[in-house]
Amino acid sequence: MQQLSGQDAMFLHAEMKGLPQHIGGISIYDPSTAPGGKVRFKDILAMLQSRVHLSPIFRRKLVTVPMGLGQPYWEEDVNFDLEYHVRHIALPKPGDWRQLCILAARLHAIPLSRDKPLWEIYIIDGLDDVQGVPPGCFALLLKVHHSAMDGATGARFMNIMHDMTPEIQPAPPAPPWVVQPASKVSMLAKAYVDAWRKPGELAKIIRDAIPAYRRIKRGYKDQEFEEQGDIPKTRFQGKISPYRVVDAKIFDFATVRAMKNAVPGATINDAMLAVVSGALRRYLQSKGELPQESLVTGCPVDVRTREEQETGGNMVGFMNLSLCTDIADPAKRLAAIHKKSVEAKAYAQALGPRISLDITNLIPGSVLSVALRAAAVTGLTESSVMTNTVVTNVPGANFQLYLCGAEMVAGISMGPLLPNIGLFHIVYSAVQGKQGTITLSFTACREMLPDPAFYAQCLQDSFDELCTTLLSASERAALKPGKKSAAKTKALTKTKTKTKTQAKTKTKTKAKSRGKTKAASGTPARTKTKAAARAAKKTRPSDKSATVKRAPTARKQRAGVKAKPKHAAAQTES
User: Fold this and answer.
1) 558 lies in a domain?
2) Which one of 259, 340, 437, 538 has the largest count of C-beta atoms within 10 Å of its C-beta?
3) String of b and e for 446-473 (b: at least 16 CB within 10 Å)?
């Protein structure tokens, strides 16, 4: 039994009707690399069953403290049923990207049941017409409540379900599963002790706040950072509907790195913020709604120390950052975003990166829950703009991942919407399809962003504009994804053809040589018979022409048989 931290519990208290607070993602797999070229649903179930003990998230559910006197606890679910959490569905024909995004948005909009462990997996078949991936692929859609993990722990959770090679590695043996039912008496006793500790924790926060105030005051004086100013209100601020849209664009990692290198000091995150900034400019301009003031994004920041890297749950700070949407030139906008990013990090450091953790741990859960609901009912959350959108950076695996032998070839992420913030971006960097990629995904309120495909195109156009502005034509050509792999494939094909031709020639020569040797060692009568047969053959031209005609026909028939695609038999079966 483990008690949730204040920040973990905050995502439970913030969850209201139409605002589920879970995170998620879709991973797409090519089963042609799996044993036999296919992955069955029961194979995935068996793999998950063998690994549920590797993460406590799989089998634990929530239990609340009586009268809400303390934060909830995690306890082992004695009735845990894997098949309740893992479901099998399929896309209708043709099985394209748009259908996948619509299905993902619908599933992501449904809250998780708090009576069960807070996660679900959907295996989705029928991805036969998704551009950029082979036909016959399948997808895995994962939903996990934000109270159980943040983006950083989510990436480690994904690694548990995958292997680094197509060969499925056996999981470490599971220790005995010990279930300790939650005791109401012990929970109330701990709540009583925690209540006595609150004044001391409050005093510590006040002590830490005094030097933080001095650091911030000195920072303004030394111009390390500037006053942010008013945040404009956009279509993404207002009451959030219960309906969602999701989409994403996948970019080449090497190209993004080259773009950020074109601006001194800029980072990968700065470059992706510039892409989001350009997309928001384009989208709002098309609606006639681009404000004169710059839009602002909130950026969650992982504040774990080195010793806390394996800690589950949430340990996140938050900083606001100008997107510089008032600057039209892409290169100047990226340089300005980098400057604002440096300032925002300096401000967060001066304030103290863990102050938000300390404050949320101090506030009783019942008080926080009532306060958030009162703010929602009275419209207080919609009256003030804290930020226009959220852009969070989630690092993925820097090596190729396989699920039951199937190679992960693409993936997108989905985030939760917050009160008065109807657009959420996730930047996910990982190796997919044996190439370094950066996926820029977004989740939005359907009423605020009714045309997700258009906004996705705005992201692509913004990326292309930034790339064209910062990189020369020769640099862009050198970075073109797939160029090296295509050359490598061509060379490999040439080598294979050459080797095959040499082998055929060698075999024919050897066979001919054997035939001559055998004929030479035969009896004279047999040799004479063969010579007579050859002479007789020369006197029958019609036979000769028939032979000449039949041979090419046979070759044409053999050449006309096409090779069966690798993915032809690749499928996910029940």
Assistant:
1) no
2) 259
3) bebbeebeebbbbbebbbebbbeebbee
Paired with 96 in beta bridges are 129
Find, among 43, 132, 134, the residue nearest to 569 by Cα. 134
d(CA 248, CA 441): 4
What backbone phi and psi angles, to 5 degrees, belong to 66? -55, 135
Q: How far is CA 124 from the centre of its chain?
A: 16
Segment 251-256 mean pLDDT = 94
Q: For position 41, which CATH number holds?
A: 3.30.559.10
Specify whether 145 is catalytic. no
Residues 69 and 157 in one domain: yes
Model pLDDT, residue 425: 98
Alpha-carbon span 167 to 171, nearest angstrom: 12
The rounded distance, in Å, linking the Cα atoms of 258 and 334 is 13
DSSP 407: E
The whole domain housing 110 covers 2-175+182-186
Q: Tell me whether residue 42 is in a domain.
A: yes
Rounded to 10 degrees, what is the CA torsion of 328, 334, 336, 338? 160
Read off the pLDDT band of 151 (50, 70, 90): low
Q: Which amino acid is at 11?
A: F
Q: Pick the catalytic residue: 146, 162, 338, 567?
A: 146
Strands 423-432 and 435-445: antiparallel
Contacts (Cβ under 8 Å, ≥6 apart) of 527: 519
Residue 191 belongs to a domain? no
Read off the pLDDT band of 553 (50, 70, 90): very low
Pair 163, 220 in one domain = no
Tell me which residue has tokens 């197509």: 166
